[in-house]
Amino acid sequence: MVKKRSGLGKGLGALIPEGKKSEIESSNKGEIQKIHIDMIKPNKEQPRKHFDQERMDALVSSIKSHGILQPIVVRPIDQGYEIVAGERRWKASRQAELKEIPCIIKELNEKERMEIALIENLQREDLNPIEEAFAYKTLMENYKLTQEQISYSIGKSRPYIANTVRLLNLTKKAQEMVMNNLLSSGHARALLRIEDAKLQREIGENILANHLSVRETESLVEKIVDRKEEKPKKQKTKEDTLTFIEDILKTRLGTKVSIIKGKKKGKIEIEYYSEEELTRLVELLQGNIT
Question: What pLDDT does residue 255 have?
Fold first, then answer.
Protein backbone atom coordinates (compact mmCIF):
# COMPACT_ATOMS: atom_id res chain seq x y z
CA MET A 1 0.00 0.00 0.00
CA VAL A 2 1.25 3.46 -0.86
CA LYS A 3 0.94 6.33 1.58
CA LYS A 4 0.30 9.50 -0.41
CA ARG A 5 1.64 12.86 0.65
CA SER A 6 -1.23 15.30 1.15
CA GLY A 7 -1.49 18.14 -1.34
CA LEU A 8 0.30 16.35 -4.17
CA GLY A 9 -2.81 15.74 -6.26
CA LYS A 10 -5.14 12.79 -6.89
CA GLY A 11 -3.16 11.45 -9.83
CA LEU A 12 0.11 10.90 -7.93
CA GLY A 13 -0.39 7.16 -7.46
CA ALA A 14 -0.75 6.71 -11.21
CA LEU A 15 2.79 8.03 -11.69
CA ILE A 16 4.24 4.92 -10.04
CA PRO A 17 4.23 1.72 -12.12
CA GLU A 18 2.10 -1.09 -10.68
CA GLY A 19 4.14 -3.47 -8.56
CA LYS A 20 7.04 -0.98 -8.27
CA LYS A 21 5.62 1.45 -5.69
CA SER A 22 7.73 2.66 -2.76
CA GLU A 23 6.58 3.43 0.75
CA ILE A 24 6.68 7.21 1.17
CA GLU A 25 6.45 8.49 4.72
CA SER A 26 4.75 11.84 5.00
CA SER A 27 6.07 13.86 7.88
CA ASN A 28 9.55 13.33 9.37
CA LYS A 29 11.73 16.14 8.04
CA GLY A 30 15.32 15.13 7.37
CA GLU A 31 14.56 11.41 7.42
CA ILE A 32 15.92 9.39 4.52
CA GLN A 33 13.16 7.93 2.35
CA LYS A 34 13.24 5.95 -0.86
CA ILE A 35 11.25 7.55 -3.69
CA HIS A 36 10.50 6.19 -7.15
CA ILE A 37 12.81 7.91 -9.62
CA ASP A 38 9.96 8.87 -11.98
CA MET A 39 8.40 11.01 -9.24
CA ILE A 40 11.50 13.23 -9.06
CA LYS A 41 11.90 16.23 -11.39
CA PRO A 42 15.05 18.30 -12.03
CA ASN A 43 15.39 21.85 -10.79
CA LYS A 44 14.98 24.28 -13.71
CA GLU A 45 17.14 26.85 -11.89
CA GLN A 46 19.92 24.41 -11.05
CA PRO A 47 23.09 26.56 -10.91
CA ARG A 48 25.14 23.83 -12.53
CA LYS A 49 24.54 23.57 -16.29
CA HIS A 50 27.45 21.43 -17.49
CA PHE A 51 28.16 17.88 -16.33
CA ASP A 52 31.51 16.32 -17.22
CA GLN A 53 30.69 13.12 -19.10
CA GLU A 54 33.81 11.25 -17.96
CA ARG A 55 33.01 11.92 -14.31
CA MET A 56 29.36 11.09 -14.95
CA ASP A 57 30.32 7.71 -16.46
CA ALA A 58 32.45 6.95 -13.42
CA LEU A 59 29.56 7.82 -11.10
CA VAL A 60 27.15 5.62 -13.08
CA SER A 61 29.58 2.71 -12.77
CA SER A 62 29.94 3.31 -9.03
CA ILE A 63 26.18 3.47 -8.51
CA LYS A 64 25.69 0.22 -10.43
CA SER A 65 28.22 -1.45 -8.13
CA HIS A 66 27.46 0.15 -4.77
CA GLY A 67 24.20 2.12 -5.09
CA ILE A 68 23.79 5.73 -3.94
CA LEU A 69 25.77 6.30 -0.75
CA GLN A 70 24.55 9.86 -0.18
CA PRO A 71 20.82 10.72 -0.53
CA ILE A 72 19.69 13.65 -2.66
CA VAL A 73 17.61 16.50 -1.22
CA VAL A 74 14.14 17.12 -2.69
CA ARG A 75 11.10 19.24 -1.92
CA PRO A 76 7.45 18.33 -2.55
CA ILE A 77 5.71 19.88 -5.57
CA ASP A 78 2.27 19.35 -7.14
CA GLN A 79 3.30 16.39 -9.28
CA GLY A 80 5.88 14.67 -7.08
CA TYR A 81 9.22 16.08 -5.95
CA GLU A 82 11.75 18.61 -7.23
CA ILE A 83 15.50 18.21 -6.75
CA VAL A 84 17.10 20.72 -4.42
CA ALA A 85 20.58 19.19 -4.30
CA GLY A 86 21.98 16.11 -6.00
CA GLU A 87 20.91 16.38 -9.65
CA ARG A 88 24.11 14.69 -10.84
CA ARG A 89 23.40 11.67 -8.64
CA TRP A 90 19.81 11.58 -9.93
CA LYS A 91 20.97 11.72 -13.56
CA ALA A 92 23.51 8.96 -12.95
CA SER A 93 20.86 6.84 -11.20
CA ARG A 94 18.61 7.09 -14.24
CA GLN A 95 21.49 6.00 -16.48
CA ALA A 96 22.16 3.13 -14.07
CA GLU A 97 18.44 2.20 -14.45
CA LEU A 98 17.63 2.43 -10.74
CA LYS A 99 13.91 2.43 -9.95
CA GLU A 100 14.07 4.27 -6.63
CA ILE A 101 16.68 6.34 -4.82
CA PRO A 102 17.21 7.56 -1.22
CA CYS A 103 16.04 11.13 -0.63
CA ILE A 104 15.71 13.68 2.16
CA ILE A 105 12.45 15.63 1.83
CA LYS A 106 12.52 19.28 2.92
CA GLU A 107 9.80 21.95 2.88
CA LEU A 108 11.57 24.92 1.27
CA ASN A 109 10.54 28.18 -0.36
CA GLU A 110 12.05 29.30 -3.66
CA LYS A 111 14.84 31.37 -2.11
CA GLU A 112 15.87 28.63 0.32
CA ARG A 113 15.87 26.07 -2.50
CA MET A 114 18.16 28.22 -4.64
CA GLU A 115 20.52 28.91 -1.75
CA ILE A 116 20.87 25.22 -0.83
CA ALA A 117 21.45 24.21 -4.48
CA LEU A 118 24.13 26.88 -4.81
CA ILE A 119 25.83 26.04 -1.52
CA GLU A 120 25.93 22.32 -2.29
CA ASN A 121 27.55 22.89 -5.68
CA LEU A 122 30.05 25.37 -4.25
CA GLN A 123 31.04 23.04 -1.43
CA ARG A 124 31.65 20.28 -3.97
CA GLU A 125 33.47 22.76 -6.29
CA ASP A 126 31.17 21.58 -9.08
CA LEU A 127 30.41 25.01 -10.57
CA ASN A 128 32.62 26.69 -13.13
CA PRO A 129 33.10 30.47 -12.61
CA ILE A 130 30.40 31.45 -15.15
CA GLU A 131 27.78 29.12 -13.61
CA GLU A 132 28.71 30.53 -10.21
CA ALA A 133 28.28 34.08 -11.52
CA PHE A 134 24.83 33.30 -12.97
CA ALA A 135 23.79 31.73 -9.65
CA TYR A 136 24.76 34.88 -7.71
CA LYS A 137 22.99 37.04 -10.28
CA THR A 138 19.81 34.96 -9.91
CA LEU A 139 19.88 35.31 -6.13
CA MET A 140 20.28 39.07 -6.44
CA GLU A 141 17.75 39.70 -9.20
CA ASN A 142 15.05 37.09 -8.55
CA TYR A 143 15.25 36.89 -4.76
CA LYS A 144 16.49 40.41 -4.00
CA LEU A 145 19.48 39.27 -1.95
CA THR A 146 22.35 41.70 -1.51
CA GLN A 147 25.97 40.73 -2.07
CA GLU A 148 26.46 40.97 1.70
CA GLN A 149 23.62 38.48 2.33
CA ILE A 150 24.99 36.05 -0.26
CA SER A 151 28.46 36.44 1.24
CA TYR A 152 27.14 35.51 4.68
CA SER A 153 25.14 32.53 3.35
CA ILE A 154 27.94 30.85 1.40
CA GLY A 155 31.02 31.95 3.32
CA LYS A 156 32.62 33.97 0.50
CA SER A 157 33.75 37.59 0.76
CA ARG A 158 31.65 40.36 -0.77
CA PRO A 159 34.49 41.41 -3.15
CA TYR A 160 34.70 37.78 -4.31
CA ILE A 161 30.96 37.81 -5.10
CA ALA A 162 31.27 41.13 -6.95
CA ASN A 163 34.30 40.03 -9.00
CA THR A 164 32.62 36.75 -9.93
CA VAL A 165 29.44 38.47 -11.14
CA ARG A 166 31.60 40.81 -13.26
CA LEU A 167 32.61 37.79 -15.37
CA LEU A 168 29.16 38.01 -16.99
CA ASN A 169 30.42 41.18 -18.73
CA LEU A 170 32.70 39.01 -20.87
CA THR A 171 31.66 38.30 -24.44
CA LYS A 172 29.70 35.10 -25.03
CA LYS A 173 32.73 33.49 -26.68
CA ALA A 174 34.98 34.26 -23.72
CA GLN A 175 32.33 32.93 -21.31
CA GLU A 176 32.19 29.69 -23.28
CA MET A 177 35.98 29.33 -22.99
CA VAL A 178 35.69 29.66 -19.21
CA MET A 179 32.74 27.25 -18.98
CA ASN A 180 34.70 24.66 -20.98
CA ASN A 181 37.70 25.07 -18.64
CA LEU A 182 39.84 26.46 -21.47
CA LEU A 183 40.41 29.70 -19.56
CA SER A 184 40.72 30.13 -15.80
CA SER A 185 38.89 32.76 -13.78
CA GLY A 186 42.23 34.60 -13.54
CA HIS A 187 42.50 34.78 -17.34
CA ALA A 188 38.86 35.88 -17.49
CA ARG A 189 39.33 38.72 -15.01
CA ALA A 190 42.30 39.97 -17.04
CA LEU A 191 40.20 39.91 -20.23
CA LEU A 192 37.52 42.08 -18.59
CA ARG A 193 39.77 45.10 -19.13
CA ILE A 194 39.41 44.67 -22.90
CA GLU A 195 36.10 46.20 -23.95
CA ASP A 196 36.41 45.52 -27.69
CA ALA A 197 34.67 42.17 -28.32
CA LYS A 198 36.80 41.22 -31.33
CA LEU A 199 40.07 42.01 -29.57
CA GLN A 200 38.90 40.16 -26.45
CA ARG A 201 38.19 37.08 -28.56
CA GLU A 202 41.57 37.33 -30.31
CA ILE A 203 43.42 37.55 -27.00
CA GLY A 204 41.44 34.59 -25.64
CA GLU A 205 42.34 32.47 -28.65
CA ASN A 206 46.01 33.44 -28.39
CA ILE A 207 46.06 32.56 -24.68
CA LEU A 208 45.05 29.06 -25.71
CA ALA A 209 47.36 28.84 -28.72
CA ASN A 210 50.43 30.05 -26.83
CA HIS A 211 49.57 28.61 -23.40
CA LEU A 212 49.94 31.99 -21.73
CA SER A 213 49.88 32.05 -17.94
CA VAL A 214 47.60 34.39 -16.00
CA ARG A 215 50.58 36.67 -15.30
CA GLU A 216 51.56 36.78 -18.98
CA THR A 217 47.96 37.55 -19.90
CA GLU A 218 47.75 40.35 -17.34
CA SER A 219 51.00 41.84 -18.65
CA LEU A 220 49.79 41.66 -22.23
CA VAL A 221 46.43 43.25 -21.41
CA GLU A 222 48.15 45.96 -19.38
CA LYS A 223 50.28 46.96 -22.38
CA ILE A 224 47.28 47.00 -24.72
CA VAL A 225 45.19 49.10 -22.32
CA ASP A 226 48.06 51.53 -21.73
CA ARG A 227 48.53 52.03 -25.48
CA LYS A 228 44.81 52.57 -26.04
CA GLU A 229 44.73 55.18 -23.26
CA GLU A 230 47.69 57.15 -24.68
CA LYS A 231 46.69 60.34 -26.47
CA PRO A 232 47.20 60.08 -30.22
CA LYS A 233 50.31 61.89 -31.47
CA LYS A 234 51.30 62.97 -34.96
CA GLN A 235 52.17 59.43 -35.95
CA LYS A 236 49.27 57.18 -36.77
CA THR A 237 48.53 54.66 -33.99
CA LYS A 238 49.26 51.05 -34.92
CA GLU A 239 46.39 48.69 -35.50
CA ASP A 240 45.37 46.78 -32.39
CA THR A 241 46.02 43.46 -34.09
CA LEU A 242 49.65 44.35 -34.96
CA THR A 243 50.25 45.65 -31.45
CA PHE A 244 48.83 42.46 -30.04
CA ILE A 245 51.11 40.30 -32.24
CA GLU A 246 54.12 42.40 -31.24
CA ASP A 247 53.35 41.78 -27.56
CA ILE A 248 52.99 38.04 -28.13
CA LEU A 249 56.39 37.93 -29.88
CA LYS A 250 58.02 40.06 -27.18
CA THR A 251 56.71 37.71 -24.49
CA ARG A 252 57.90 34.62 -26.33
CA LEU A 253 61.29 35.93 -27.52
CA GLY A 254 62.15 38.02 -24.49
CA THR A 255 63.32 41.04 -26.48
CA LYS A 256 61.96 44.05 -28.34
CA VAL A 257 60.03 43.24 -31.52
CA SER A 258 58.65 45.74 -34.04
CA ILE A 259 56.26 45.07 -36.90
CA ILE A 260 56.48 47.62 -39.72
CA LYS A 261 53.55 47.49 -42.12
CA GLY A 262 53.75 48.93 -45.62
CA LYS A 263 51.12 49.25 -48.33
CA LYS A 264 51.93 45.91 -49.95
CA LYS A 265 54.50 44.32 -47.67
CA GLY A 266 55.99 44.65 -44.21
CA LYS A 267 58.82 43.46 -42.02
CA ILE A 268 59.45 42.19 -38.49
CA GLU A 269 62.45 43.60 -36.59
CA ILE A 270 63.86 41.58 -33.68
CA GLU A 271 66.49 43.37 -31.60
CA TYR A 272 69.45 41.70 -29.84
CA TYR A 273 72.19 43.20 -27.73
CA SER A 274 74.98 40.62 -27.70
CA GLU A 275 76.33 37.64 -29.60
CA GLU A 276 75.02 35.36 -26.87
CA GLU A 277 71.52 36.80 -27.18
CA LEU A 278 71.63 36.38 -30.97
CA THR A 279 72.54 32.72 -30.52
CA ARG A 280 69.70 32.30 -28.04
CA LEU A 281 67.17 33.87 -30.43
CA VAL A 282 68.33 31.74 -33.38
CA GLU A 283 68.05 28.56 -31.31
CA LEU A 284 64.63 29.62 -30.04
CA LEU A 285 63.33 30.37 -33.53
CA GLN A 286 64.70 27.10 -34.89
CA GLY A 287 62.96 25.25 -32.09
CA ASN A 288 59.65 26.97 -32.88
CA ILE A 289 59.95 26.15 -36.58
CA THR A 290 60.72 22.46 -36.04
Answer: 82
Active-site hit among 18, 31, 54, 87: 87
User: Mean of the per-residue pLDDT values for the chain?
Assistant: 78
In this prediction, residue 43 carries a pLDDT of 80
Domain ranges of the chain: 12-108, 170-230+239-284
The string over 67-83, giving b where at least 16 C-beta atoms fall within 10 Å of a residue's C-beta and e elsewhere, is ebeebbbbbbeeebbbb
Q: Is 87 among the catalytic positions?
A: yes
Give the total residue count for the chain.
290
Query: Options 3.90.1530.10, 3.20.190.10, 2.30.30.100, 2.40.320.10; which CATH number does 12-108 get?
Result: 3.90.1530.10
Nearest in space to 39 (alpha carbons), one of 110, 108, 109, 105: 105
Question: pLDDT by residue (tens digit) across 239-284?
Answer: 777 888 888 888 777 788 888 887 778 888 888 777 777 888 888 8
